[in-house]
Amino acid sequence: MGIPFSRSPIAPNSATYISHALDKKVSGDGDFTEKCSRWIERRFGVTKALLTTSCSHALDMAAYLCGICEGDEVIMPSYTFSSTANAFVRCGAKIVFVDIRPDTMNINEALIESAITEKTRAIVPVHYAGVSCEMDTINSIAERYNLFVVEDAAQGAMAEYNGVSLGNLGNYGCFSFHDTKNFSMGEGGALLIRDIDCIHAAEVIREKGTNRSRFFRGEIDKYSWVSWGSSYLPSEINAAYLWSQFEIADEINNERLKIWNQYYVALSPLAEKGLVELPYIPEACRHNAHIFYIKVTNSDVQAGLLSYLKNAGIGAVFHYVPLHSSEAGHKYGVFHGEDIYTTKESSRLIRLPMYYGLLPSEALRVTDSIATFYNSMT
pTM of the predicted model, to two decimals? Predict the structure, then answer.
């Protein structure tokens, strides 16, 4: 592939820090994990950050901390990855999907309240493409009905809503540091906690159900099994790789934003002709250029353009198949109200190559190829 869809971010000190981890400590919760966790807390203003083996596991932890159990209902968009739902299905919850907004591809906050029943326990907003959901409205609803808010901020590192970092707007926030994300551990994530009283319970879950974290801090003389838990600690090798990127986080973010803006300007003539739709960023949101997508007129054009770009050596891809239309979606969830936009908009969306190190000349090749495709249709 001439221009891949995504490429792992490589920072100047990546290999050096990985070598240091190999020399000193490979297992989890060493110096690099500490550095990354404290950086997240300082940079994003969150009370506590715990590195995890994936965003999926951070969501699992959040669901357990919320006390989700058999018979509960959890509201979320259908336009998301399976992990968003799996975390709550694992606890026995029923997933209640609501439609999205076509402008941001985020959950439609105006439809949430009508989906609430006496069984509802949580709302899970998913910040698509690093663009925040309408969190003031969502938090207001959650407060009125005494519901938890778990932010699926897998794509949200370095993005903000009204000046507050994504992941720090609900009871819990979940980051992804997967290979395709702005900052990567290969596989990894983080759980962000706002309430200081929930930290100990989270540490126990993360440390196989033991109070081992307190033991390592010298707070107790021995540790033991105290509750349910699992092993959610990433290797120091993963944390070392992530730390090398955090050192240049602003550079990574700014380079992605430059490419995002280049795409937007270059594709605006096609948007003015009504051939494509470009991303919309609400005034309250500061995005992080996680994804640049276009929406074409229908699924046939989507398939044609994807094929054209593939033949041109450009790695453009579609995104989620709506969860409610899947086998597991039928089994574990229900769509509340009418699916006006979720399926329709997902069948029109194409994601363009976006990664740290993508050259402006390569981005130009992408937009020129899209223009050529449309010229060939006239």
Answer: 0.96
Report angle CA 362, 364, 367 to the nearest 5 degrees. Answer: 115
Identify the DSSP state of 277.
B
**Residue 228 to residue 249: CA distance in whole angstroms:** 35
Block residue for tokens 């990855």: 81
Least Cα distance to 78 among 279, 278, 296, 339 occurs for 339
Name the 3-class secondary structure at 165. strand
Cα separations in angstroms, 260 against 68, 166, 288, 290, 349: 38, 19, 9, 9, 16
Count the alpha carbons within 13 Å of 179 in the hemisphere toward its beta carbon. Answer: 5
CA 112 to the chain's CA centroid: 20
Query: With left for phi above 0 and alpha for psi between -120 and 50, is residue 128 left, alpha or beta?
Result: beta
Give me the CATH topology for the region 14-246. Answer: Aspartate Aminotransferase; domain 2 (3.40.640)
* CA–CA distance, 133 with 169 (Å, rounded to integer): 10
The second-level CATH assignment, the architecture, of 249-377 is Alpha-Beta Complex (3.90)
Among candidates 206, 203, 151, 159, which has minimal Cα distance to 183? 159
Closest CA to 192 of 174, 214, 219, 180: 174
Write the pLDDT tens digit of every residue in 312-350.
999 999 999 999 999 999 999 999 999 999 999 999 999
62 within 8 A of 123, measured Cβ to Cβ: no
Please give the angle made by the CA atoms of 282, 266 and 248, to the nearest 5 degrees.
Answer: 65
Give dist(CA 364, CA 367) in Å, integer: 5
> At a CB cut-off of 8 Å and minimum separation 6, what does 227 contact?
201, 204, 205, 209
User: Rounded to an integer, what distance in angstroms lies between the CA atom of residue 140 and that of residue 110?
Assistant: 12
Tokens 């050529």 map to which residue? 372
Tell me how far the alpha carbon of residue 126 is from its chain's centroid: 7
Residues listed for the chain: 378
Give ranges for CATH 3.90.1150.10 in the chain.
Answer: 249-377
Question: Which sign does the torsion angle of CA 356, 357, 363, 364 carry?
Answer: positive
At 257-278, the pLDDT tens digits run 999 999 999 999 999 999 999 9
- Give the distance, in angstroms, between the CA of residue 200 and the centroid of all CA atoms in the same chain: 25
Which residues belong to CATH 3.40.640.10 in the chain?
14-246
